[in-house]
Amino acid sequence: MPIVDNTYFIYTVQPGDTLTAIAYRFSSSVSAIEQANALYPPITDRGLIFPGQKLVVEKDGLSMVYRIVQGGDTLFQYAQDYSSTVEMMYGINPQVGNPGLLYVNQPLFVPVYVYQVEEGDTLAQIAEQFGISLSSLFRANQNRPGLSPDVIYPGYHLLIPLPSSANILVASPKPGTIITAGQTLSGFARAFEGSLLYQIQDSSGGTVTSEAPIQASAGGPAFGTFSTPIQFNRTPQTSAGQLWVYARSAADGSTIDLVKTPILFFKNQPD
Fold this sequence. Notes:
Number of domains: 2
Mean pLDDT: 94
Helix content: 10-25%
Structural class: alpha+beta
Largest sheet: 4 strands, mixed
Order of helices and strands: EEHHEEHHEEHHEEEEEEEE
CATH architecture of the largest domain: Roll
Shape: globular
Strand order of the largest sheet: 3-2-4-5
Distance between the termini: 18 Å
CATH topology of the largest domain: Membrane-bound Lytic Murein Transglycosylase D, Chain A
């Protein structure tokens, strides 16, 4: 299932906009915008857009998704759209000085990634594959052209919320992708003294990576970034498994803020 690693902008169409002008603004192309948003027959007239629609606009670059602020936008609205929290949205956008004040045309990082639809995909299948609810998937893609509960088109770019809890966001690896030893585990977190833990299990319940520490760049109440190479202590016995990232309560040592990411170890092998 193809997850597209590139830079994307979520742009709300304004009166007078054209695809040519939007493509120029974001150093993209009209054809790429049409494909990503199903702006072609028989779905719609080619290139036809309306004010208020949200377009996914691709640009070569790092694997990041930004939303361009429009008048009236709030962090609360973004948190609702992307299954996040206001505190998380504020924490992963340090350029925002006042969480109650956003500036029009300001790009904000949003906690989603992009999946390119393949032939035979269904929205229910995609939601299950990536461990999210169907309602979360629809909410992340609301007001987008070319999206219907009944049919989706190959090449369409869906926004998928990243795995998160109230205080931990896992940015990489992406859900449903193959992981290997040495690959980077990264994200954002707010934890006591910045102390996090991770472990990996295969789908039989076998431990692939025993509980191991991660150190975030800042401790709570601030959000920090974290990045560490993944280690394997044992060979996976199944093709699929889960990556867990979490913290321990400073009060009683219990597991808190657990984020579970479905991952693969290899393809085309029976569990």
